[in-house]
Amino acid sequence: MTESKAPGAQSSYEARKPQTRGRTRENTPLRHNFWVDLKELIAIPDVASRLKPPPKTNKRLGLRKTAWCVFHQVVGHNIRNCLALGFQLDELVRGNFLKDYLQEPQGALTTAAPTEDQGHEVPIHGEINTIAGGFSGGCTVSQRKKYAKGVMIVETQGLDLTLEPDLVFTKTNLRDVVSHDNDPVVISMVTTGRKVHHILMDQGSSTDVMFWLTFNKLQLSLDQVRPYVGCLYDFAGYQVEVRGNIQLCTTFTSDAASRTANIKYLVINAPSAYNILLDRPALNRIRAVASSRHMKMKLPSLEGIVIPMKSNQKDSKRCYENSLKTKRGVCSVTIQPPGED
User: Which domains does the chain carry?
Assistant: First the structure.
């Protein structure tokens, strides 16, 4: 039986600290609805005297840079999703100290729904970004600085979406899909009068890649290759041999329609189970959207017709298995600039 305490007396309990960081019932406080705002509730002298203030810190506690927690007096999460305050208020409700401020009856308590802010008690020491390279943003330091500054400029001119249809994936697109374990989307396309298979929809790099073996199979001339300044490195830090870049007319076709676009490929000499890697530059240029769940890629034709391109699941699995056998598969590349202009 809980003993009542005199008003203003300091509570002797310590706030419960969750032992694990997983979203379980044990480390998630019960959410109570109060008829006063939480900021006003913790400011009431009788309530404030029973709360244990958290230790002060200058670190951001959470993922949201603009959210402010009145209880912690730091940014990172809001007071509604504050775990430390939630546990203490839960204890006070169980001790029958906040019955005059509750909206719901005592038996109607529910576990708070997990939110992305529930990991806010882990201090954020820094941020890790992805590596990138290729043509996006330029090849030199000054070009990339100009590109980075342009990110802060709000574009006022809208895109011309007059003939662009909605690219939607529905349940009907799953009818011809064999159940898979996160298979990559691998398609075929036509370039220089030849149909090229084993094209990976990568979306993880900022450059479109053609491998040297594919370049030779297409019987392309070295006169078409333009020099590329800079060095490329794979994810493990090994240097990748760059032969240059080439721009080719590439056609994406299906029974519905087709679309041709000029795509600039970076030609590299490295082992790969794929012939070409299509990444963000090409996909954005043709306005394509790929779905690994539906094993398809869709893009609009110039006439406004949706072009569905189905991934070959047998080729997808075969390429993935072969990529694991290569000694140094190219997973991602980054650029080392030669210097300023």
Answer: 30-119 (no CATH), 141-336 (2.40.70.10)
